[in-house]
């Protein structure tokens, strides 16, 4: 494989970072007891800085919301279809999220930039600006509702009226480590004040650390996971993410008459492997952690081939 190819140059560093974490885990350089603390560091500190800074410095007036609306419609439809197929429970919701949530930042940005140039990045950044807000908020509301139902069924909490349950779920979704900094950053951006360098630089340093640390953490967890037991499930999720998702996106786009660069960017974004945020999400709710960990790793390796095929086919249609 040509290592200068956009797919290889974007995906292989991700595979390498997961591999480094795997070796560190096998050598016991990072103990199992420390994984939860590292997960909290990534989820409660690093990702906060990344999301707040991204939204606080975004040029919202330049965002073309129409061009990415179809992406979220397709992703949402696929999420709920998988949720109903697998059963209405919180574990199924986490696995459904894994099947639609792409690694748009660490892999998507360099891949699209190298393959399609700066013009395509405008479309991708529009998608990224709302990616976590839309999909993780949707998943959080659904999971909070399902968790409340499961707790009530198990007698761990008194049953509540559906309106109260929905209100509590929405509250938990907003007061959540992912949507909260996005909302705060969006509101701050409306002031037009900008971020002073003394504030912006530390936020950037913390945000830049998110991707590498999260992927190394995936590797550490993978080293402590019996991936053989989860390989079949990980292959199914990886196929849904890197094959079915882009196929549905392409079909929906063509059905609505879309073509050219906007459709190409949406399809490539859909073809990207499972994002590390889903791994952190599963850890936060203690649902399907081993399977999601395996899926992040397997889908990343699988995407080296599937994304290449998707990009090749897009040049012919």
From TrEMBL:
UniProtKB keywords: Cell membrane, Membrane, Transmembrane, Transmembrane helix, Transport
Q: Which GO terms describe its cellular component?
A: plasma membrane
The UniProt entry's GO biological process terms, in alphabetical order, are: transmembrane transport
Q: How is it placed in the membrane, per its record?
A: Multi-pass membrane protein
Where can this protein be found? Answer: Cell membrane
Superkingdom of the organism of origin:
Bacteria
Q: Which residues cross the membrane?
A: 6-25, 37-56, 68-85, 92-112, 124-148, 169-189, 209-227, 234-253, 259-280, 292-314
UniProt feature coiled coil, ranges: none
Signal peptide annotation = none
Q: Which Pfam families does the protein's record reference?
A: Mem_trans (PF03547)
Q: InterPro entries given for it?
A: Mem_transp_PIN-like (IPR004776), Na+/solute_symporter_sf (IPR038770)
Q: Which family is it part of?
A: Belongs to the auxin efflux carrier (TC 2.A.69) family.
Its recorded name reads: AEC family transporter
What's the source species for this entry? Ottowia testudinis
The organism's taxonomic lineage, starting at the top: Bacteria, Pseudomonadati, Pseudomonadota, Betaproteobacteria, Burkholderiales
């Amino acid at each position: 494989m040509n290592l200068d190819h956009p797919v290889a140059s974007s995906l292989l560093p991700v595979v390498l970072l997961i591999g480094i974490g795997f070796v560190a885990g096998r050598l016991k350089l990072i103990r199992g007891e420390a994984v939860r603390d590292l997960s909290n560091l990534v989820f409660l500190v690093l990702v906060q800085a990344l999301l707040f800074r991204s939204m606080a410095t975004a040029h919202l007036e330049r965002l073309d919301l129409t061009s990415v609306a179809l992406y979220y419609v397709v992703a949402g439809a696929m999420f709920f279809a998988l949720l109903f197929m697998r059963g209405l429970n919180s574990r199924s919701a986490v696995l459904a999220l894994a099947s639609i949530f792409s690694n748009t930042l660490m892999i998507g940005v360099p891949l699209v930039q190298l393959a399609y140039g700066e013009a395509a990045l405008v479309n991708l950044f529009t998608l990224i600006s709302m990616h976590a807000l839309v999909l993780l908020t949707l998943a959080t509301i659904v999971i909070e509702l399902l968790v409340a139902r499961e707790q009530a069924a198990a007698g761990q909490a008194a049953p509540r009226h559906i309106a109260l349950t929905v209100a509590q779920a929405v509250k938990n979704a907003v007061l959540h480590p992912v949507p909260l900094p996005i909302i705060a950053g969006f509101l701050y951006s409306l002031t037009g004040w900008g971020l002073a360098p003394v504030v912006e630089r530390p936020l950037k340093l913390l945000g830049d650390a998110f991707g590498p640390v999260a992927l190394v953490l995936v590797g550490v967890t993978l080293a402590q996971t019996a991936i053989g037991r989860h390989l079949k499930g990980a292959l199914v999720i990886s196929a849904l993410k890197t094959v079915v998702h882009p196929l549905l996106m392409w079909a929906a786009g063509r059905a609505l008459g879309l073509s050219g660069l906007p459709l190409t960017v949406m399809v490539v974004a859909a073809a990207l492997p499972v994002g590390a945020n889903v791994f952190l999400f599963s850890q936060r709710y203690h649902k399907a952690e081993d399977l999601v960990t395996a899926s992040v790793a397997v889908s990343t390796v699988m995407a080296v081939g599937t994304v290449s095929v998707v990009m090749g086919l897009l040049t012919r249609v």
